[in-house]
Amino acid sequence: MALNLAEELSSIATNVAASDWRQAVRHAGDGLVAGGVTTEDYTDQMIAAVEEHGPYIVIAPGVALAHARPSESVKKGGLSWVSLASPVEFGHKSNDPVSLVIGLAALDHTAHIEVLRAVAGILSNPDTRSGLDAAASAEEVRSLLARAASPK
């Protein structure tokens, strides 16, 4: 799965209000559904995974990578992007609160790992990360991600 991060503008939302981590994950799931990536069942599976395993999806300070196992609810691989208006707590002792929730759906484990690697590379660049944190529109996020993902 190539890093077609947030190819669909409907998969990107900025300045989103969420009252708790479940609602934040649900917004990420809504982006996956809107982009034609998953069914709504996948969103429930993402929430259930955190309820069962804890806040393991909070992968870096302020960043959650919402996902579940590949299943029949995944139509194709893809990502959604949700920046929150106000950060929410997931219960992670060192990376809370979360202000960015990336939804990930993959058809298989290999694609899942490839996308994790690509996302980590993009978010580890301080200039890209600060630009993404400040982005006020879906178009701006998509532009920044496209630049960051393109070969140098």
Describe the secondary-structure layout.
Layout: E1 12-16, H1 21-34, H2 40-53, E2 58-60, E3 63-67, E4 78-88, E5 98-105, H3 109-123, H4 126-134, H5 138-149
Parallel strand pairs: 1-4, 3-5
Antiparallel strand pairs: 2-3, 4-5
Helix pairs in contact: 1-2
In short:
This protein has 152 residues and is an alpha/beta fold. 42% of the residues lie in helices and 21% in strands. The chain has a single domain, classed as 3-Layer(aba) Sandwich (Mannitol-specific EII, Chain A), CATH 3.40.930.10.
Structure, explained:
The protein has one domain: Mannitol-specific EII, Chain A. The longest helix has 15 residues, at 109-123. The chain is globular. It has a five-stranded mixed sheet with strand order 1-4-5-3-2, sandwiched between helices. It is built from five helices and five strands, in the order βααββββααα. 42% of the residues lie in helices and 21% in strands. A hairpin with a 2-residue loop joins strand 2 and strand 3 (63-67). By secondary structure, it is an alpha/beta fold. The chain has helices spanning 21-34, 40-53, 109-123, 126-134, 138-149, and strands spanning 12-16, 58-60, 63-67, 78-88, 98-105. Helix 1 runs antiparallel to helix 2.
